[in-house]
Amino acid sequence: NSVLTMQRRPAIAKAFVHLNMAVMENHGELTSEFKRLIAFVSSNTAGCRYCQAHTIRAADRYGSSSSRLEHVWDFDNHDCFSDAEKAALRFAQEASIVPVNVSEDTEKQLQLNWSDNDIIEIMGVIALFGYLNRWNDVMRTSLEDDAKSSGEDLLEGISWNVGKHI
């Protein structure tokens, strides 16, 4: 079994680094912490364990409260998320399932709560992690020990057996 990483094609790796930096910059109302929670919801919806571990770890590092980390799975039912955040997380969930089937109500709530520029940033995070979820799942990227520990600590009850390279 060989290890197939993005590094085998430096131009792809370099382009990804630049895209990641551009998407994760904050220009509006979104915080670094909240962008990582959007990424987590998108990755959770797609089922990518690698990205779930990394995004929940990053949200924690960017100051997410234990309540937000614990309840991000069920964001609609918890007051630790504002109505605006719930609209963005619902959008992330729906757009990560079947992008063309985002409900009209979700789109309306997103537009009521966020500026057009913020919506572009939200969609950038969802699209970036759509790419990463597919890359890491298909290539079976090995989950690093520190990310695995964070995943186990912050996301109890999930199997973290990922990373059998093709």
Summarize the structure.
This protein is mainly α.
What does this protein structure show overall?
- With 166 residues, the protein is an all-alpha fold.
- Helices cover 64% and strands 0% of the residues.
- The protein has helices spanning 10-24, 32-46, 49-61, 66-71, 83-97, 104-113, 116-138, 145-154.
- Helix 2 packs parallel to helix 5.
- The longest helix is centred in the last third of the chain and has 23 residues, at 116-138.
- The radius of gyration is 16 Å and the shape is globular.
List keywords for this structure.
disordered C terminus; 0% strand; 8 helices; 166 residues
Gyration radius (Cα, Å) is: 16 Å
In DSSP terms, counting alpha (H) and pi (I) runs of 4 or more, how many helices?
Answer: 8
Are there runs of 5+ residues with pLDDT below 50, and where?
159-166
Content-based structural category: mainly alpha
Helix content: 55-70%
Mean pLDDT: 87
Number of E strands:
0
Strand content: under 5%
Overall, the morphology is: globular
Biggest sheet statistics: none
For the termini, the CA-CA separation is 6 Å
User: H/E order of the elements?
Assistant: HHHHHHHH
Write the topology of this structure.
Elements: H1 10-24, H2 32-46, H3 49-61, H4 66-71, H5 83-97, H6 104-113, H7 116-138, H8 145-154
Helix pairs in contact: 1-7, 2-3, 2-5, 2-7, 3-8, 5-6, 5-7
